[in-house]
Amino acid sequence: MIVAAAVCPHPPALVPELASGAADELADVRDAALAAVAELLSRKPERIVVIGGRTAADPEDERAAGSLMGYGVDVRTEGERIALPLSLTVGAWLLDRVGWTGRRTYANAAVPVDDRVALLVMADGTARRDVKAPGYFDERAEAYDEVIAQALRDGDAAALSELDVELGDELLAAGVRALVVLGEMTKGADVTARLRWDGAPFGVAYWVADWTISS
Hints:
Layout: E1 2-8, H1 16-19, H2 23-42, E2 47-51, E3 60-61, E4 64-65, E5 81-82, H3 86-98, E6 103-107, E7 117-122, H4 141-154, H5 157-161, H6 165-170, H7 176-186, E8 190-199, E9 206-214
Parallel strand pairs: 1-7, 2-6, 2-7, 4-5
Antiparallel strand pairs: 1-9, 3-6, 8-9
């Protein structure tokens, strides 16, 4: 049973040790993400499934860890062995920061749910919102991101499940597949939604949202 979901971005600079000059600009995003993840814990899940990444891999459990050493700082998440990509590492960091010590599953696709589960979906939007963005400017990016923002605002799982993944790839939307998984795993459920943050610092779209879910 899925009882809650949260959507958070995963830029490395969300972690204060990496923020440098971006620290103040991302402070509101970081605070919103931590609040959204804390809201997951308030729903008393038995397990948290962190969804993100793009490469095919088997799901990992709480023994997996992530490291940001490749970005120049000695930040490592809880776990026995380094196995997580960036998106899941930032998700693990958020869980560590809010004090989650329970079971975890890290995945990039839908996983079986036979217990009381909360989903933590790590998803950046397009990276082509302005001329300083990593992918430069694309006039289609803002409309694409707004579709996602509206779906998160409305708790519209069906809209997320139907996102155009190929267009998302063209617009460098790193989180589009994770958002589709969220839509697929929660379609048909009764969702109470809150969009906590919506913006595009550095030309990359970020959202923070949390959903309370009932079957």
